[in-house]
Amino acid sequence: QTNQIVLFNRSVDIHSLFTEIDVFAQRKLFENGKDEMIIFKINRSENIGIKPLIADQSRLLQIVKELIDNAVKFTNEGIIEFGFTVKENQKADIKYYYEFYVKDSGTGIDDRCLSDIFNLHKQIDNKEFTRSGLGLGISIVQKILALMGGQMTADSIIGEGSTFRFTIPVL
């Protein structure tokens, strides 16, 4: 089938991932004319290398790019931050997991709409912005994360911004 997502797992080079993400974010900000109004920050965890991450690095990059792209669309000024930490999992077979996040100081998402963004083809109604796209990004991200054994959550406050978090287990 043409809609199959295939993963090529290997050890993720966190440092090169950070570099690729930084270059992508700076380019997105510049392309959207927001490079002087928004600061992009990478929060480098002290946990780098404590637990190696085995995952498909290109798919991991795809996930982060989608979240940064959305943050750029919905942030006019302020900050967009990317980071991660390694956390211990008390409840499951997997002892550790990586928790990545993209946080912005954008428009925020109403609680009633927050769950809708995880639905295929669903875009939230935000009259401040006209956007292109089919609304596939977050649903594709969720499919990739499910294949990786991870999941995504989001918190948001109208007028203050949003934080999207996703986890990937350490195998």
What does this structure look like?
- The protein has 171 residues and is an alpha+beta fold.
- Helix content is 30%, strand content 27%.
- The chain has helices spanning 14-31, 57-73, 111-114, 137-148, and strands at residues 10-11, 38-43, 54-55, 78-88, 96-104, 151-157, 161-169.
- The strands form 2 sheets. The protein has a 5-stranded mixed β-sheet with strand order 2-4-5-7-6.
- A hairpin with a 7-residue loop joins strand 4 and strand 5.
- Helix 1 (14-31) runs parallel beside helix 2 and helix 2 runs antiparallel to helix 4.
Q: How does the SSE layout of this entry go?
A:
Elements lengths: L9 E2 L2 H18 L6 E6 L10 E2 L1 H17 L4 E11 L7 E9 L6 H4 L22 H12 L2 E7 L3 E9 L2
Parallel strand pairs: 2-4
Antiparallel strand pairs: 1-3, 4-5, 5-7, 6-7
Task: Give descriptors for this structure.
two-stranded antiparallel ribbon; 171 residues; alpha+beta; 7 strands
Summarize the entry for a quick read.
Helix content is 30%, strand content 27%. It is built from 4 helices and 7 strands; from the N terminus they run βαββαββααββ.
Mean pLDDT metric: 85
Strand content: 25-35%
What structural class do you assign from the helix and strand content? alpha+beta
Shape: globular
For the biggest sheet, the summary is: 5 strands, mixed
Number of helices: 4
Please state the CA-atom Rg, rounded to the nearest Å.
16 Å
Instruction: Count the beta strands.
Output: 7
**SSE series:** EHEEHEEHHEE
Helix share bin? 25-40%
Largest beta sheet: what is the strand line-up? 2-4-5-7-6
N-to-C terminal Cα separation, in Å?
28 Å
> Which residues sit in consecutive blocks of at least 5 with pLDDT less than 50?
126-134
